[in-house]
Design a protein that fits this description.
This protein is mostly beta strands. Helices cover 0% and strands 48% of the residues. It has no helices and eleven strands. The strands form two sheets. Strands 2, 4, 5, 6, 9, 10 and 11 form a seven-stranded mixed sheet that branches. The chain has a four-stranded antiparallel sheet with strand order 1-3-8-7, with no helix packed on it. The chain is globular, with a radius of gyration of 14 Å.
């Protein structure tokens, strides 16, 4: 079964940090670009960050620039999202998703259809 599984969410105080993990099972992430998305209650899902299949091109949306860092470890079939200086407005369910990208040097895109989605992990930032 092909799936993505997120973990690492939880409750954290403002200014705190969390590291989310996205592990693939049933397929290798080597040929996939990975995106992180989030959806807050009552809001539409929004893109957060993505990393291309080669690991050389990364994009962040403005709300998280300078605070979040995406990385990948293909040997572990895992992509990470390090989140620092968390704010209450970061509270959301965070999802990872993947799309096939055979051209390793091509940049990743958040605004496109993704092939696989995880089930999400809750991040709550509150004092």
């Amino acid at each position: 079964q092909l799936q993505l599984v997120e973990s690492g969410g939880g409750l954290v105080q403002p200014g705190g940090s969390l590291r989310l993990s996205c592990v693939a099972s049933g397929f290798t992430l080597d040929y996939y670009a990975i995106g992180w998305f989030r959806q807050a209650p009552g809001k539409e899902r929004e893109g957060v960050s993505c990393i291309n299949s080669g690991g050389s091109k990364i994009n962040y949306t403005d709300p998280v620039k300078g605070r979040f860092t995406i990385s990948r470890d293909n040997a572990k079939n895992t992509v990470y999202l390090q989140m620092n200086d968390l704010k209450p407005e970061d509270t959301a369910v965070y999802y990872c998703a993947a799309y096939r990208q055979l051209v390793f040097f091509r940049t990743c895109v958040l605004s496109r259809d993704y092939d696989f989605w995880g089930q999400g992990t809750q991040v709550t930032v509150s004092s």
